Amino acid sequence: MKNEIANKDTESKLTMSTNGIATTDITRWKSYQKVLFRVAFIFFILMSIPSSKEWWTRTVALDWFNLNYRDVYDIARFLPEVPGLANYSKGLKSYNDWFVILGIGVIGGAIWTLLDRKRAEYNKLYYWLRVIVRYRAAIGMIGFGMQKVFPVQMAYPPISTLNTPFGDMTMQKLYWWEFGISPFYQSFTGFVELGAGLLLLHRKTTFFGAVLLAIALGCINHVNVAYDGNVHVYSTYFVVFGFFLMIYYVRDIYHLQFKENYTIPNHYYPAFKSSFWRFTRGGLKTINIILFLIYLPYLQYLNFIYDPYNQPSAPGVKKLRGYYEVVQFKINDKEIPYSPLDSTRWQDVAFEKWSTLSLKVNQFIPPSIAKRMHEPEVKRYVDQNGFGFNSGAPQRDIDRTYEVFAANRRSFYYRVDTVNQILYLQDKATYVNPGDSTRYKSSDSKHRIYHDDWISTDSEKYMVSEINAIPEAGKSTRRTRAYTRKVPLDKMRDRMVLHYQTDQTGRDVLLQGVNENNDSIYVVLQRLEKKYLLPESIFVGGRYD
Amino acid sequence: MEMVDTHTPVQNIRRTEKDRSVEWSSGTIILFRFVFVFLMLQAVPLDWKYYRFAFSITWTDLHIRDVFYLAKYTPTFFSSYDPLALPIQSFLDWIILGLIAMAATAIWTYLDKRRKNYNDLYYVLTVVLRYRLAFALAAYAWIKVFPLQQPYPSLSLLNTNYGDLSDWKIVILTYGAGTSYEVLLGFVELLSALLLLHRKSASLGAALVIGFTGNVLLSNLAYNGSESIYCLYLLGMAVAIFANDAYRYYSLLVLVRPTFPNHYRPVFSGQKKQARVFLKSTYIVFVFFLSGYLAYSSFASGPVAYPRAKGLSNTAGLYDVCEFKINGTWLPYSFTDSIRWQNVVFEEWPTISIGVNRKVTPDDLTTEEIFKEDRDRTFEATGSTGRSFYGYEADTINYVLRFKNRNRHYPNDEFTLNYKRLGQDKIKLWGLNQNRDSIQVVLSKVPKIYILNESYELPKNRSVFD
């Protein structure tokens, strides 16, 4: 058909399109569309329902009156799980649950096709499926985005990392630090994710939200493959959701853009006529907005200020902060001079602004560790350095191992008795060495610091309890519960008890006490006023004053 | 629950819709004139320096570097002469171009008052911009597809502390470490360039550029890179191309209303048709085949960021400085001494880096450059402190190494040392250092394993943690 809109002025050089009108008759679907829809419906419903036992236990256990940001985030954080399937970390195998769910979709779709042959269309069902997929994706994205808007997901590198060679860190760690060094950029990417979430919540902007979702999470997926991360499955999940939501618009776009037709979109929306449905819809929307767009950002803000989840939140000893050279090192009264190759002598000590002491010591790095994980010594090495795990969930400072990701460094969590000036240190890494598991009940005097009463009652008096180490506003039931629970792995941790002595400035420090093997150590430290080339950032979380 | 199908029948809607492309508002017309002049001045190579550069190229022996700079053209008014590279715009150039475009707009508006639209000129503008933009993107795409842009960190850089690197250097090295991500980004750029070639897919390509280059712009701002203006240069073009379809998308997808397509397409006949085919195929061959091949051949002969010459054979590695004597005095290991060397890295190419506790003034390189000559390839020595980088010439007959500092802040830092191999893993160096102090050093190779190289495939649980 001839297009009626002519432009006489430009006729000589350009010709008008004489294409037709494109529209879709949504009252009658083609049979293949119906079959595909049935499969997709079952697949995406199963994908959108939290099916892991873990999700239900933790959601039921929530204390709604004293939430942690992570409680709300956790509601939005789940992958479908088929009971009984193994968990793989690499390759196509790691998507095994999805294949099973797709299989269920195909079988279910076939049965449904047999039972429901007369249906002309599924407009209404399609609409509601898209609502569910949209909301699932939107909530996930808002959760993702909020952690970066207030930049806590990737912490700014601590002193120990600033003094770690580039090659002594894992790929994943490098990628995360790259975001950590620019909290402003991290915040920007958070707004992009948040933006995708908001666009998805709104029906009219769904297409743009879906595009943003697929592209942003597609990048995250590839980052996880390229940098050996572990959320490649979870990111693919959202990419699939994004593409599914885009399908609805593809035909119209194709006609408008490529066939250059006058395109008449035909969308189906339910009209909420009865007041019951209007209230239900309004109510659900309001709950969603209050929970994810008001309460979650508020909790995330508190987390950023008081308890940034990827770094410890209790302040460290104020005088002892900074990067120290180990001037003198004696073990059992025997002095060991500095050598970069010695495997016992400490080379430097970093006191972070939080409750961590880390030290550099030359360790033998086993070659081909990725391939030799079945060897106990290699596994031990990997675990000891925290290469094997990195999770945002831990509440206790001692479990926040984000900073412990470098070769040739050990990191210790400490509690301090500032009156008697004693540091009680525990290794932040928990590796299981058969010999270590019995130290706590051994009668060998060598193991006395592994007994339950290793902190003297005198010291206990002067210590701030771990739960109260941060201001009231930052506390939550989740955090309190984590500190009151007994953790069996804690018994495996190496311990040290060190008395410290210093002047007002904290420049020169003497550490004296016993190390993890009950050897007596005598360590003289001197602070180095180091200026880093890497710019500092003011937009960092935590209160340590 | 009641549901009503609210879609409006075709015949009722059509008469009420108006094709906005027929009659432009007067504001749009004036804006268009400005944009047209401004972007044409930006995109069409009018700057004489461009031709000076183009004529300096040996066209019979092209290098990816030549294509890279041809594609990175920006008109500049104030730039110092640099025979090695084309100058890149500053914000001041934008102000001047803006003023010129404003003056042109005023005159044009005075002379041409009857126009209802500029669909024809808009089409001409988008053609110019599409090909200009596609060339710019393809050049950057090829050096990512064949990962040249961000190299894998050299041994010296693996042994540089994180805090001793600049933020921009960290970005480059992090991308360089994750090679396959760099390659993927290259393919995304390549895809957007290809989409721009076709009239109908151009706005999709432009949208991709807006997302991609917008992100690059933000990274430049956040990590102190120096190519923000160039990003804006590309973004301006992409926005102008996308604008043609922006309202259509809004109308179709957000308003969900019947939407008019683009009506205008060029008609070529006879010789014009042949000329078009010829020009377009030449362009495609040059931008997509020849450039790709050049990037590939560069990649095949080693990373362009580092020197290509070979260093002293069998020396590459990290060395502990087990003995250090200066003016007759032995110095023991020290963590903080500003004279004693702590460790030395021999690269595969003729560079060593010395770790010494001395403040090094960092050499900055925050733009993307490609150099042909080894002496210009100083990427390794830029954006870091903590190590001093020396290029060397080896006289393997007299066993002499002539060192020259690679950091441009230390042009006079040169010295010559004798060397002797003590077995497989030890090297002895002696002679006068840059301060004419006599030094004698014994280096011993450390069989160091880098977690970065090992980390790939470390087992971990599949998770929804982050």
How would you explain this protein's 3D organization?
The complex is a heterodimer of chains A (545) and B (466). Chain A has 545 residues and is an alpha+beta fold. Chain A folds into 2 domains: 303 residues, no CATH class; 210 residues, no CATH class. Helix content of chain A is 40%, strand content 12%. Chain A has 14 helices and 12 strands. In chain A, strands 4-6-7-8-9-10-11-12 form an 8-stranded antiparallel barrel. A two-stranded parallel ribbon of chain A has the order 2-3. In chain A, a hairpin with a 4-residue loop joins strand 6 and strand 7. In chain A, helix 5 packs antiparallel against helix 8, helix 5 packs across helix 10 and helix 8 crosses helix 9. In chain B, 44% of the residues lie in helices and 14% in strands. In chain B, helix 10 crosses helix 11. Chain B is elongated and about 90 Å long. With 466 residues, chain B is an alpha+beta fold. Chain B contains 13 helices and 10 strands. Chain B has 2 domains: 292 residues, no CATH class; 138 residues, Lipocalin, CATH 2.40.128. The chains are: A alpha+beta (545), B alpha+beta (466). The interface between A and B is large, with 125 and 101 residues.
